[in-house]
Amino acid sequence: MYFFLYIENNCKDIDNDELQNRIVAEAGFNLYFLIQNLLSFENEETEFKKYASFMRSDIKLSKEQIESYDYYDYLKEAMNFYLNNSLNIEILKDDIVFKVYCPKLPFFNGFDEKIKKNFEDNAKRNTVQTKLMSLMSEKDKIYQKIKQLSSLEEFFKDISIFRLLFNYPNEVQNIGFGLIVLMNLLIFFGYNAEKDDDDDQIKVIDHVEIYPFNKYQTPVILKVLGCIIAIFSLIKLFEFVTREAILIFKTLYTNHLKDVYESNINTMSDLEIYSVDYFFDSKSYKKLLIYISLFLDIKVLYALAYMIFALLGIFVHNFFFAFHLIEFIISQPILQYVFRAIVDPIAQLAYTFIFFFILIYFYSLIIFYNFVEIMPKNSCDSPIICMVYIYSNTFTSGGNLGNFIDENHPNDDGDMVRYALDISYTIIMVWLVWQMVSGLIVDTFESLRGNREDKEDDMKSKCFICGLDKEKIEKYYPGKEGFEKHLQDHSIINYFFYTFYLEDKDSSEYSGLESYIKNQINKESISWFPIEKSLKIEEWDNKHKGTHDS
């Protein structure tokens, strides 16, 4: 109560409403954090009385001012506001665990579940140290992302369609994918092949007919549905540009700039100055590499392809909408592992296929020089033609060399060289190479699945911040949800938010602990995290220390 009256007395002469609100908010949060710290003292009632006495003597409020306020309702409303709009984390300094507070800044709302899940999926979980290093390495990227999302949301807040997109991105995406599935089902059941009366050949008819619509209504329905899908594809492209592409470009631009002016860039202000010089420097043609790198990024390529295939589906043929079903693979974690099982060992698979082509080349030379007469006509006129023929028939003919040589030259006379050629080709070219390829894919999939299971087990049984086991934590927290309560005390999101808060705050306004934490962050140190420590556990140990000693 004294705080609010004090603010009223001292801010009434300030004409700037925005400045008034800022002063009230900052002072209010500081007072709330001070109260929280005072209440954490062992002799909290005495400490709070000392503080209240100081406030009364300093502010010197009149009795009429005090009685004009509804003390309890006003204080309760204020405390609820600051409680719901602030957060706290535990930090370690000089081997002592402290609780520090900060307000929830408006742009924190940009930190959605998608960002959190992406971080948790990609964080290195070998040890608690590697986890915290992952947090430190990703904080700047996430900070830039949520600041950008917050700015865009503020910019488009008065436009209903964009407000809907920012507030319900998953729902919009699900509707778009549902329309894609519907389109492909209509294509699957609606198209058929019929004999053309003009040239007596069987062709796929484009005038598809889907019950209960006739052949004239159906194409119109498919065209309208395709246009709606194209709109959703455009929305998806817009979402990607706002969420991902701009950040990808900024990262590429900044990294390239640092490479060019590495010796002269020491601070962010230097980076901004050299960025302007670089942009207007006509000789710096190498900056085109940034745009090339941007459009070679797999996420950018997919977003562009998604939109391009939607346009092809409208103006060329409906079959191009089949491409959009890839979204199902991307959205399902288990299918992502199947896809990664093929993509991750791409280098090993590439070398395996090179080995396969070399073996094909060896066999084509042997067959061309010694067995050209047993090959079908025009299939082995030169080594390269022979090699192409053998390659194209290796898997389509079961891998047996005898299955695709000239049927007029069977090995009836028991030629052992022919036997050796057939058997060695089947064993080496089909069985061995196939086992190598399938082994790489299966081993990678098993490894990815094992990592996923380890990650899930780690998330269920260990705290990300302190690394303590669930079993140990639950000894100190009453009730069945002790581990969940501890995870709220050591919330990953709150630690991200606190680093964002320090990044956004003027360094001249830092408190002592804030300066300490910021210095540790700048040094990329994780020593300020409460590794294997918790304030709740330390309080419990201190409370029962005398009992254990006795």
How would you explain this protein's 3D organization?
The chain is mainly alpha-helical and about 550 residues long. It has 4 domains: about 1-85, no CATH class; about 85-145 and about 465-550, no CATH class; about 170-330, no CATH class; about 345-460. It contains 24 helices and 4 strands. The strands form 2 sheets. It has a two-stranded antiparallel sheet with strand order 1-2. Strands 3-4 form a two-stranded antiparallel ribbon. The model is unreliable at about 45-65, about 65-70 and about 265-275 (pLDDT under 50).
Question: Can you tag this structure with a few keywords?
Answer:
two-stranded antiparallel ribbon, 4 domains, 550 residues, mainly alpha
Number of strands: 4
**Portion in helices:** 55-70%
Give me the Rg, rounded.
34 Å
Number of helices: 24
Main β-sheet description: 2 strands, antiparallel
Strand/helix succession: HHHHHEEHHHHEEHHHHHHHHHHHHHHH
Which strand order do you get reading across the main beta sheet?
1-2
Percent strand? under 5%
Task: Give unreliable regions as ranges.
Answer: 43-63, 65-69, 265-274
- Give the terminus-to-terminus CA distance: 46 Å
- The chain-level mean pLDDT equals 76
How would the global form be characterised? extended
Structural class: mainly alpha
